[in-house]
Structures are given as C-alpha cells and as structure tokens.
Amino acid sequence: MFSSHLGDEPFTPQMNTRQQRKVLPAVSTSLALAAGIGLLETVALIVGSGTLMNIIGIPVDSPMRAPAEQFLTSRAYGAPPIIVALAAQGAFRGFLDTKTPLYAVGAGNLLNAILDALLIFPLGLGVSGAALATVTSEYLTAFILLWKLNNEVDLFSWNIVADGIIRYLKSGGLLIARIIAVLLTLTLSTSLAAREGPVQMAGYEICLQVWLTISLLNDALPLAGQALLASEYAKGNYKQARMVLYRVLQVGGVTGVALAASLFVGFGSLSLLFTDDPAVLDVARSGVWFVTISQPVNAIAFVADGLYYGVSDFAYAAYSTFFAGAVSSVFLLVAAPKFGLGGIWAGLTLFMSLRAIAGFWRLGSKGGPWEVILSESE
C-alpha cells in the first residue's frame, strides 16, 4: 500500500566529466532527505515502542507484548535503508528503469527468507532472529540500489540547496500525510482486532498479511503507469498520456479480478503456510471474502495513486486518502463492537473503495492537472 516517491521530481542533469556520471541535485537531495527521515523514524520507534503497543491495544500483561515490542525495537534499525531504498527506486523510475529495483528487492527478499529459515528456529533467536533477517535484507536492497545508481549518478553531490529541500518537504509532507492516514486506519483496525482475543487476532493477521502481500503484486501497475504518464505529461504529449491512463486502468481492473479468482480458489492452502491451528484457520477462512472481493478495488486504488504521482497531483492524493481514512475509521469504531471481525473487514474494504472512487471522481471532474490531459483536443 506504500510507494516510493521521494526521487520522482523532474531531473536537471549536469555532466560530471571526470567520472562520466550525471550530477542530479534532485537525486542527491532526495537521498539525503530520505536518510534523515529514516534516522528520525529509528529514534521514534525505539523511544515510542511501548506507547505504540498501548495504542494498538496490546496490554502490558499480554503474552504478545514482550515479543512484539522486542521485534518493533529491533526493526527500527531498518528504517534508514527502507526510506533510502524508496528514494532510490523513485530515481530509477525517473529513468524509466523498473528492472533494477525488481532485482534489488528480489535479492533482499531472498536473503530475508534464507535468514529467517536459519535464525528463527535452528539458531533459536525467535523474534529477534526474524527482525535481524528483515533488517539485514533491507540493508542489502539499499546497498544494491545505491551501488547501481552510483554508476549513473554522482550520489554525493554538494549541490543540495535550501530551495530544493523545501520543495521536497512540501510535496513530501503531503505524501507523509497520506501515509499517516493509511497507517492510522490500519492501526485502528489492528487495535480493534486485538480486542477480539488472541485466536481472532491471529486469524485476522493471516487475512491481513495475505491481503497486503497480494495487493503488492498490483504495485507494478502504478509504478509503470506513473513513469509512463510522467514522461508523456512532461513532453506535452497529452494524447499519449490519455492512452497510458486508460490502458493502466484497464489492466488494473483485469489484474484485480484475476487475483481475486486465484485467491478464492487457493486461500485455504495459502493459509496453511501460517499455522495448522484449526481455530485460527477457521477465523482466517471466514475472512476469505474480504481478501478476495477487495482485490479489484485495491488494484484500481493503487493505480489511481500512481496516476496522481505521475502528474504531481500530490495534494489530492493526500486529502482524498485522509478523507477515506477518516470515514472508514468512524465506520470501524461503530461496526467492530457490533459485528466483530466482519465489521473490521468491511471497514477496510470501505477504505479502499473510497480511495478508488476518489480516483474516478478526480478523473471525471477533470480537476487539477487532469484538465489539460483529458480536455486536450485531438
């Protein structure tokens, strides 16, 4: 549900003749800003882990409290490479290079899986091992991306000026507000699920993780759509931009339906990868409708995000997500006590549906940058 946009500003290249690498202040600025944000996140997560557990609804005497807090504190050290990697992915998108991020993330995920298999049970590190595996894989991903990017761009340019940072903070602030809206909605849903009991919470988490994982398969669509749309929009090729817009929406809808059908058939087998507890599996299977039906909606919502970023429509992306989160949060607070996990899953489906509707509304109203794209005469 989250994407990389810190490096998506237009590039103004200068050539470093000594090393035959471009000098792009936009890249240097975004990477420096990303590193700073990552360090702040590390400190915030370490200092506020206990407070976050309280917000989520895990009491001090809960058996989940100690391992959850331990995992969160350890994972905090992975914040800097995550944010830097996201900024680097944005730079590659600016170059219309989608392969390098794929290989880097794939290598990181492979290392994560290998280390999980070694550290959690064979070496007996448990939760700490899981956190160590994840953090290590995140540093590997960031290293690969920076290494490849350094072949093309002078990463450590001193051409970082105040107005560049202010511009990034302005657009980045809107994106951060959008991410906060998403996180608050998901945190509220998790908190309400935790109050249902450990079995219900475990079943809910299986559904949520499957939902998030499969939804990320849709992320390729907004990535490609954003890069292609931004390129045509910047060139003034509005007819071609419209073609990109329509095609990405069509492919997104078809992909969402295909994922929904696949999940409906294979969810039972997939849930067995998480646990063999019959009670937990029963709860997880009760959420299969949420996981499957929401996939077409998720695909359209994610595609809309990519389209927003492709034309720098950051303000609408932030405000529409914040509105969807506020409405869905009210629904969750009302529905969860009455309908339990069913109410929570309905609230999350409402959240994604409102985001998708907001995307269609923006395009239909031809507001902001969409006026010139959708109203251009043939």
Describe the structure.
It contains 14 helices and two strands; from the N terminus they run E-E-H-H-H-H-H-H-H-H-H-H-H-H-H-H. It has two domains: 160 residues, no CATH class; 195 residues, no CATH class. The longest helix is centred in the last third of the chain and has 34 residues. By secondary structure, it is mostly helical. It has a two-stranded antiparallel ribbon with strand order 1-2. The protein is globular and about 55 Å long. It is a multi-pass membrane protein. This is Protein DETOXIFICATION. It holds the Pfam family MatE. It is found in: Membrane.
Integer count of domains: 2
Structural class: mainly alpha
Low confidence ranges: 9-18
List how many beta strands DSSP finds. Answer: 2
Q: Assign a percent range to the helix content.
A: over 70%
The helix tally amounts to 14
Spatially, the strands of the biggest sheet line up as 1-2
User: pLDDT average, as an integer?
Assistant: 84
Strand content: under 5%
Order of helices and strands: EEHHHHHHHHHHHHHH
Indicate the overall shape: globular
Alpha carbon gyration radius: 21 Å
Largest sheet: 2 strands, antiparallel
First-to-last CA distance: 35 Å
